[in-house]
Amino acid sequence: MNKYESIIIIGQNVEEEGRKALITRFTDLINTEGKVSNINEMGLKKLAYEIGKNTEGFYVVFEFEAKPELIVELERNYRITDEIIKFITVRKDEE
Questions:
Q1: Distances from the Cα of 43 to the Cα of 20, 33, 46, 55, 87, angstroms
Q2: The model's pTM
Q3: Calpha distance 28→18 (Å, rounded)
Q4: Which residues of the chain are modeled with pLDDT < 70?
């Protein structure tokens, strides 16, 4: 299994309950075939440029181990979730 870091930006209009539900949903998805080691909720931050009428976004960083096949499914779920305005997943080098 490889180590990954996935950063998502949730739109500024999503309430706290909605954010918690999204975080739980993606944590559960990752845990089906991998293992989440850390979740860092960075909070609401100003975006460098406007994305779909959003000037701020709620940043969440997932650190996890998984097989490469899971990344395809995870990013597919990010794309079809309207509340997520941006995301990126990167493989972390072994330390």
A1: 12, 27, 10, 14, 15
A2: 0.90
A3: 15
A4: 95
